[in-house]
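Deliverable D4.2, example record:
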Amino acid sequence: MATHLDDDAKRLAELGYKQELERSWSGFSNFAISFSIISILSGCFTTFGQAWNNGGPIAITWGWPIIAGFILIIGFCMSELVSAYPTAGGIYWWAATMGKPIHGWFTGWLNLIGLIAVTASVDYGCATFLNTLLGMFDKDWGGGLTFTFGLFVVIIVLHALINIYGHHLVAVLQNISVWWHVFGVAAIVLILVFGPDSHQSASFVFTERINNSGFSDGMYWFYVLPLGFLLTQYTITGFDACAHVSEETKDAARTAAQGLWKSIAYSGIGGWILLLAFLFAATDVTEINKELGSASAIFTTALSPGLAKTVIAISVIGQFYCGMSCVTSMSRMTYAFSRDRGIPGAKLWSKVNKNRTPVNAIIMGCTAALVLTLPALYKSPTGTPVAFYAVVSIAVIGLYLAFLIPIYLRLRMGARFRPGPWTLGGKYKVLGWIAVIEIIVISIYFIMPLAPAGVPGNKAWDWTAVNYAPLAVGAVLILVGGWWALSARKWFTGPVRQVDDPGVDLVGSS
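Output generated by the structure prediction step:
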């Protein structure tokens, strides 16, 4: 029996799927989830120390806009792809369709580990700043690593529950999150402009170099400074969420493409303004260095206690919204990859409940994020949160390598590619190659040691200082590569069509 469908469901049927998820998100909500996951109230706060210690102000004032520009190019390439293929599988689906099943297999697993790591890092960062905020209300506060991890567990459980039981609420909260970020950032900038008694000079903000990495100054330009770019590369990521919720978005072929690149552009501009405000307020360099470059040290040294609490509270709430969005994106990708039998126990993870919510995928992803963050319970010899930065590196490497594969495959397809309503036209070639080269370069840097104590053979070498990003990502690649060679290549065929006739039986039952 034929079913009347709107254009979105028809297009989804042409791609081979029934409309199982509820398509109730507006274009603004689609933009909002990526804008919330990028979350300059999260990344600019939690990884500020990475740039401060590895390069100093110039890693931020010059590094941020340059790297953000490269990321926007990556976003343009991905916008063209989501316009052509608006499915929840997103980048893994694009890879499998434009290439072979093996491309979809590796892309899917890289994307999945990246999304799990993003969720873990955002929620752990939120727990860290919440712990700091609580300590500001009580000078005798003794919340250490164990307590921070406990807060992290509470936060990620709350995010799982919101996504499971608040399926209508999530889209509303995404929209609220956008305005929280807009007005929150504006409030923080105004506080940092008018709150301090004095400000740094423009010379400090735009030319000062700092090297607290432990590596020699001779390594500054080619090694230390690029490590500082992790701030930008980590903050502006997770924008593939626009694709993962495209099956829930109206007019997805247009709105998801626009939401993706706009979330990057607006975050790039807003983040730079916010970080400049940080640096102009960073007058007590000695104390900030003692606090390992923590952004909170800027606020506590430059502002009154009340204003410092206000700034950190605004950030904590923004980070909470960000983590909620991360769980949404992660669960949709898990659902879609399982729908195509790419994950063990696929039938379990691809189930949706009566509200069309992939509950099991939410639980599995949040549990994996908890396990990935366990090394954060151990303190590094230097006191720097090396384990946290390693999780951040895993997120960056996993996601951007997953982005690289379909971008390269689109380049290889050339004129055979059938674009959607949003297209780059002939500019896809130069933009695509720029994107590929940038991703390769940053992936190499972010598997490198983040501190001398993490360099094998160094006298100060210590396991707690090791960047375990290459170990985690490498283990995943070896595992899924071996699995592919021994088994998966015989049965994983890429996207599994649910629909052969786009006019029949297109709406999935609960």
